[in-house]
Amino acid sequence: MKRLFYLVDAIDNVESISDDLHRDGVSNWRFHVVSKDEAGLYSHHVHSASVLDRTDLPRFVERG
Where does the source fall among the domains of life (predicted)? Predict the structure, then answer.
């Protein structure tokens, strides 16, 4: 599995990257966006990351 990380400074850039990924056949369930502005992601129709994506919780549970 590959992971790509994009660091952007504006939600408009995220929307542009999202449109590019959709055009290449990547669905919303294959990429997630971490942002402090959850409302902005919702208003731009960008799929936000879950708690499991934002934290390293599964690894800590395994080590538990």
Answer: Bacteria
Q: What is the tally of helices (H) and strands (E) in the chain?
A: 4, 0
Q: What are the pLDDT digits (tens) for 13-30?
A: 888 888 898 899 888 777
Under DSSP, the state recorded for 55 is S
**What's the pTM?**
0.62
Please tell me the distance from the alpha carbon of residue 52 to that of residue 14, in angstroms, as a whole number.
Answer: 21
Neighbours of 21 (CB within 10 A): 16
Phi, psi of 47 (to 5 degrees): -75, 120
Contact 47, 31 (CB under 8 A): yes
Cα 8 to Cα 15, 16, 23, 31, 34: the distances in Å are: 10, 11, 20, 15, 11
